[in-house]
Target: MEDS domain-containing protein
Amino acid sequence: MDSLIVDLYHEYKKNNGGHICYLYNQEENYINNAVSFISAGIRNGDFIFLLENDRNLRLIQERLHKEFSTDQLSNLLVMNNYDFYYAQGNFHPHIVVSEFLKTLEPHLEKKTSISTWGLVEWREDKEIYEKLAEYEQIVDKSVNEKGILSVCVYPAGKTPGSFRKALHNCHNIVINDEEVMHLS
Model:
């Protein structure tokens, strides 16, 4: 699938960005796809914002450092996903999106091509799926207005069917380790 993610990257860059949902099953596929997507962005001259957990980040960065120079990696901003999403103690959709856009604003002002890859993980919270759905709706509007290519990643095994329906409603496309489903 890693060549498919690169094809999708190029397709959506031609169309001024978009919002992709990736529901992954296998860690190895996930790492390969993340590295392929980021590599395509680096080759395109994008500013890339990566939200990732520490375990995956180590694997991704090892592979990127083998392929790219420090200078080439200078447009890659990496943040721990949990620290970013829970910076205020709890997951607050509007605050998270505000921080997301604040992070990207200098690059938007320069008209730099922007790509984002965010692994969404959550702690137990009885309202988390409503909050995540609200977050995704706000992100969808923002990335489409600003021409950003954004991939939101969820572990398929931890993502219930009812929440998947909400994800389908606010993404242009949903992919998994084997297939692509165009939604708009």
Notes: The first strand starts at residue 18 and ends at 24.
